[in-house]
Write a structure and sequence with these properties.
Layout (H helix, E strand, L loop, with lengths): L8 H11 L4 E6 L1 H11 L5 H5 L15 E4 L5 E4 L5 E4 L1 H17 L39 H14 L10 H14 L15 E7 L5 H12 L13 E8 L6 H16 L2 E6 L2 H6 L2 E5 L6 H14 L5 E5 H39 L1 H13 L13 E2 L5 E2 L1 E2 L4 E2 L4 H14 L3 H18 L2 H19 L15 H26 L3 H22 L2 H26 L9 H15 L56 H18 L3 H9 L21 H12 L4
Parallel strand pairs: 1-4, 1-5, 5-6, 6-7
Antiparallel strand pairs: 2-3, 8-9, 10-11, 12-13
Helix pairs in contact: 1-6, 1-17, 5-6, 11-13, 13-14, 14-15, 15-16, 15-17, 16-17, 17-18, 18-19, 19-20, 20-21
Length: 703
């Protein structure tokens, strides 16, 4: 029995891997390439906007695609998808971030809690307050504006039709939209490397561009003053060459140009055949332009939709061009990107991680910590600073980052890349190892981030599906579950929440951590049928999020706009879903929930029985057991219905589409019957359910 309905936690887990823990590839195309795509596709979009949706190869795939990944234990696994994220080049990302901060400064919102830019305090153990400046002047900012997220969800709630997200369930689609925007970000920070570009793709036109233009682009890119924590030597540089195969000798000239690039620039290249003549007569397919977009990008797109009659959310591409892009990106990932990441991981493991794990390294680390004075020559090395205790450290307390060549920064990148390649157990052990060094250096932003990733990598490893679906994963024993809950999840969440909110003043980072952990805990409860272990944690964290959002929106929105909150309604729904799937039944008895209830009815009794036999007599006035009497006390349907009622209240006040209210009423039908004609106490006209029943009758839509 699929009750109550909602977003499957495993789908949320997949979206987490697609939108957050996936490789970021930066793109830089020449002006000639942009013009060529615009002329062929009859659009004003840039090359980046056209290629960006195809990074999600779970959605835009090719037949029988397989991505082979070899982990550090030399075990080969095949995966059906390996999504990547396309973004502008790193200099452009940094300039956009700097421009957005400057505009916020001009509006005087630096001290407002609704501003995406906040000062940080308590990062330097030797100072009370410092400015969180990184190399090249980048600043720690909020992941998103909470007010913008609320405005975005209000717009989506009024415009999203039922089943628009592909699940066929409007409630699931709205929550999935909320989750995607919550975890999607392209912000560059030092303490996590998921948004550091792994690859840089230069796209040029075979007919109008030449080797000198490509060389100049590469030289200008390498001469940029990158942040001190970003290692450009780890970047995979690749070239895409756009050509038209219908032009005579185009393929021959392409091979010559590729050989020239390989010999003179030592770079690999890939040809993309984009034909202008055949594209005009072919049938077209529709591609979404909102894949992996941030909240601010979507708000800008909504403004353009109002002007352009909703034409900026999708693009029609000829089938030949669509097939070419899919196949070439598949080859790029399999032949270049994954091997590059695997080679770097093996290199860092041999040269940095394994020596650090050795007993000799630990002994010399302790020797340097206790016996090295501040006048040591190590203090003159790049990125080396003096701690308050007088020892040397690779952590820069003024800029709050580790230098790009330091072991601490390299090991953090090693753990992040291992997580991207789905080697979750190895990633967890690496995070746990480096966490001690961050704590000793009092690098609080690194400590909070690595504590979050310890939880995430551990839960991802526990919920990883077997390659053979018929093999059911073994349920962790009670000692393992107790350690996960009490020794890892609870203390780490408390510490990172305090660090992000109190030390760094970055509340949105703690919000994102809570949402991610909640979904992974729900996924673990579903996989092993152990909701009784983590349901109290899920409830506590969701209530904490609701209180935080309520306090922020009340202070930032006007009194009229703060009467309701879509964010609160969505979180109330998730609480209802969590309690609705809180099962205290064993696996053997769980099948009772999937069987229709049955009890004897008066009109089905046989009349050929002996009336004198008192044992077969049925009292017509006797009450019959409830439908789910055998599971009473083993489910949490009543508390689930309570949270759904609170969500209903928010949706009714918002005046959003009636389909969302219908969805929620379906999730409380086991406790409250609104289809019957009987006048019950909870359907009084002055109560919430009475108002909903009146609304249903007026619209004349069966619930």
């Amino acid at each position: 029995m699929d009750y109550p309905k909602g977003l499957d936690p495993y789908i949320a887990r997949q979206h987490l891997l697609h939108h957050t823990f996936s490789p970021l590839i930066s793109i830089q195309a020449t002006h000639n390439v942009d013009q060529y795509f615009q002329s062929v596709l009859s659009t004003q979009l840039s090359t980046l906007q056209i290629l960006k949706p195809y990074g999600n190869n779970a959605k835009y795939n090719i037949p029988s695609q397989q991505f082979k990944i070899i982990n550090t234990q030399l075990i080969t696994k095949n995966y059906a998808s390996f999504p990547i994220r396309f973004e502008p080049s790193l200099p452009e990302l940094l300039s956009i971030s700097h421009a957005s901060r400057s505009s916020e400064d001009n509006r005087g919102r630096l001290t407002s809690s609704s501003s995406p830019v906040l000062p940080s305090a308590g990062l330097n153990p030797s100072h009370n307050t410092v400015t969180t400046q990184f190399g090249m002047g980048t600043t720690l900012t909020q992941l998103f504006s909470i007010t913008s997220l609320e405005m975005y969800l209000r717009h989506v709630a009024k415009t999203l039709p039922p089943g628009d997200g592909g699940s066929g369930d409007r409630g699931s689609d709205i929550y999935l939209t909320f989750l995607d925007k919550f975890i999607t970000s392209n912000q560059i920070t030092s303490f996590e490397t998921f948004n550091h570009p792994i690859g840089q793709i230069f796209i040029i036109d075979l007919e109008k561009d030449n080797l000198d233009i490509l060389r100049r682009q590469i030289v200008e890119f390498r001469n940029v003053n990158f942040p001190k924590f970003f290692q450009i030597d780890d970047l995979l540089v690749h070239v895409f060459i756009i050509y038209d195969e219908t032009i005579p000798d185009s393929y021959k000239r392409l091979e010559q140009f590729q050989n020239e690039i390989r010999n003179k620039l030592s770079l690999d290249s890939t040809g993309l055949s984009i034909s202008a003549t055949t594209a005009q007569s072919e049938s077209k397919i529709t591609v979404s332009l909102i894949e992996n977009s941030t909240i601010e990008e979507d708000l800008q797109r909504f403004a353009l939709d109002d002007q352009n009659d909703n034409t900026s959310r999708q693009l029609e591409i000829p089938k030949s061009i669509d097939s070419t892009i899919r196949n070439k990106l598949y080859d790029y990932i399999n032949k270049f990107l994954i091997p590059h990441m695997q080679a770097k991981i093996r290199q860092w493991d041999d040269q940095v991680l394994q020596p650090k794990r050795s007993i000799t390294s630990r002994f010399f680390s302790a020797s340097r910590k206790f016996f090295t004075n501040s006048s040591s020559s190590d203090s003159n090395l790049p990125g080396t600073s003096i701690t308050p205790s007088g020892t040397t450290s690779h952590y820069n307390y003024e800029g709050n980052y580790y230098y790009k060549t330091s072991p601490e920064q390299t090991i953090r990148k090693l753990a992040d890349w291992s997580l991207i390649l789905k080697d979750f157990k190895y990633a967890y052990s690496t995070y746990d190892l480096i966490k001690k060094d961050y704590t000793n250096d009092r690098a609080w932003c690194y400590v909070a981030s690595v504590q979050e990733m310890c939880i995430v990598s551990l839960l991802l490893a526990q919920t990883q599906q077997n390659l053979n679906p018929s093999l059911k994963p073994p349920v962790p024993d009670k000692n393992t579950l107790r350690k996960i809950k009490h020794d890892i999840v609870e203390p780490y969440i408390d510490n990172l929440t305090y660090t992000f909110k109190s030390r760094l003043n970055l509340k949105t980072y703690s919000f994102r951590s809570l949402i991610i952990v909640i979904e992974l805990l729900l996924c673990m409860c579903q996989v092993f049928n152990i909701s009784y272990w983590f349901n109290d944690l899920i409830e506590r964290y969701l209530i904490k999020l609701i209180a935080e959002f309520q306090g922020h929106l009340t202070s930032s929105l006007s009194s009229r706009n703060s009467e309701y909150s879509i964010i609160k309604a969505i979180l109330y729904e998730r609480l209802g879903y969590s309690f609705g799937h809180c099962v205290y039944l064993s696996d053997e008895n769980l099948q009772q929930l999937h069987q229709p209830p049955s009890h004897p009815k008066l009109d089905e009794t046989t009349h050929d029985q002996d009336d004198e036999d008192e044992e077969n007599y049925i009292n017509p006035h006797k009450l019959h057991p409830g439908k789910y009497n055998s599971t009473n006390g083993l489910m949490r349907y009543r508390k689930s219905a309570l949270w759904y009622l609170l969500a209903l209240k928010e949706w009714i006040v918002s005046g959003s589409n009636y389909n969302q209210i219908r969805h929620l009423v379906e999730n409380i039908k086991l406790n409250y019957d609104l289809d019957g004609e009987d006048q019950l106490w909870y359907t009084r006209p002055d109560l919430l359910l009475g108002l909903i029943k009146t609304m249903k009758n007026s619209i004349d839509k069966p619930l």
